[in-house]
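Workshop exercise sheet. Pairs work together: one partner reads the sequence aloud, the other fills in the structure field after running the prediction. Swap roles for the next sheet.
Pair: D.N. / O.F.
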Amino acid sequence: MRIPEDEVLRLVGLIYDAALDERKWSAFLDAFANAVGGSSSILRSVDLQTNEAGFVASVGYDPAWQSAYCSHFVKMDYVTRALYEFPLGAVKSVDQVFDMSEQRKTEFYNDYYIPQDKPHAMGALLIKDGSHTLLFASQRGKRAGVWSEKEKRLMEILVPHVTRAVQVHRRINSATVEKDWALGALDHLRMGVILTNKLGRPLFVNRAAELMLSPSYGVSVYHGRLVLNTPPETAQLYKLITDAAQGAPGANAGGDMRIALPDGESLHCMVMPIPLELSTRWDIALASGCVAVFLSKPGGLQLPAQRLAVLYGLTPAEARLSSKLAACKNVELAADDMGITLNTARSQLKAIFAKTGARSQSELLVLLATGALAHCRDDPDKSAGS
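Structure field:
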């Protein structure tokens, strides 16, 4: 009853290919059906309470029968309901669980299995989340006979891998949604936000920053890299970017500077590292992390301390410090403005991180802005040109 190792490894490889690309589930299901002598294989989701069903992937199934299952036969599917009573991942064949004489009395067997010549089925539930289930199963015809122990054993070996692959795929989808939401939130800020690599090449530019990227405004892109109006300013910016890119996640590496504008005014520029785990979730992973460049008119981001205290459960002192940081001031300047020691400011910042869930000042800045400015942000077109 020994199963060839190379066959198992081939199928496991196909499973994890599908984890990264859901279009490849069919290739795995087809290979599995061939390996066990099945005529079809499926990954099918069913909510046992609402009778909502869907085929994640399938091979060997007529689309018309899939539609009929989802609209009608799901209500009488005794197989999925029976598997729900077994431990998660337990592989069972229909012949093990139900006597053939009992099955022949059911509409599901006579009007669904028999017309398709799929009376023999084996499977396991990969997910039991409340009433929601995900079934991995294979079917075959009457002449093929019941499933052998070797065939069931192969499914047992693969079930944990299929389960992990489904979980990985869900996390990837979740991360994609999170990235889209996070970058979308940045795009609506009145503060300019540019995410760059360590060479100063922009990876993401929000709307407010796009309006600032012109030589007449003080910041531009030349040969794919950020430049300022004068070589000394550009050199200072790249020193901050290099410092931030080399900093450990959560460290206060980087710094801030003023960018002179042609009209005699200035921009406040703050450069900070983005934690590696955050850049990875946003699908812009870099070996040395990602750098965030924040641009604003001095004093342009005035977040009321009282509002921050309510939103994030901060003490009055922590809220005042958060307001200073949101205005693109570093901890040293904020402490000086508040008349407190640097050690006190750092202690308060640690408490702010714990309450907000942020792990660095750059992450805190984005969090405060997207949370508190969501209802009071300016039109980027107006704020950039003001």
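Discussion prompt: The chain has two domains: 5-176, 188-385. What would you look at next?
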